[in-house]
Amino acid sequence: MSMNQFFNYLEKSILVVILISTVVAFATVILGLFEAGTVELADILLLFILLEIFGMIKEYYFQNRIAFSYPIFIAITALARLIILQRKDFDPVLLLYESGAILILAAAIVILRLRYLDVLVKNRKVGGGQ
User: What are the tens digits of pLDDT across the range 7-27?
Assistant: First the structure.
């Protein structure tokens, strides 16, 4: 077995461990919701975070790559959840910092998505060929 095959098997094994951990976390959250009898926004955001992790695992397993947007979406959702879970007596400046971080991350997503616009791709081909 070559080193490349070894690391490929190691990556897939670790990916399976992450998948199992995520499934257990998802089941724990769902059971907690049934036990509590209520669903709050923070719980829904946690489920979205877990769903994004499922998406990352699926993409990496089948395509051997992860789009930059998945971790950024997870960070945005985690920051939104943090803002919701914070007590009301926190310093308002922290809220500004956290919302500013969400804005920066959202701008990063927009910039990443702009790479795929047809107009920009055509301009790159024209400019690169001269």
Answer: 888 988 999 999 999 999 999
